[in-house]
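Bench notes, afternoon.
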Amino acid sequence: MKKCFWMILLLTAALLSACGGKEGGKRKAPDAAAMPSAAPSTPEETNPENGLPLSKQPDPTAPVLESIVIYAPDGQGKIIEKMEAAEKLTEEAIVKLLVENGTLKEGAKFVSMEQTDSAETRMAGPGVKDSGGSKVKNATVTISGFAPGKGLDEETAKQAVSDSFRENYQLNEVELVLK
């Protein structure tokens, strides 16, 4: 029992000397002269239209782009969802992006898209009064020169094209016609 007591006392003394330092663990307050002085800053004026500081306004000459969702290979054989940008959401832009990202081979061209209302409806979200819901749309998309991109089989490429149109136009079903 005495050995255990002396052992604990010795360890406590060693810890105190190692952690305590020469000055007994007291820390000095930082020297005020060594601290950089912060000049009082005035808030920058903001643009009342958008609330941004005047020095950080958006470029008025920059083009306004729309986001387009496509499904494309990730380089490891998997199809992933990608966000791309185009000046306008068009069917041609979707096919062009699918070709650029490797879902389809060069030469694929958009021919037509015909949207139809189905018998189904979607209910609106909470807070909408007396809504009978919105009509669910289906589409038939026709593409010429269809060929899957490198490393994709035909079914995977078809599904990626259908999903890309479904996502961008909020469609329920997409029938793909190949010419």
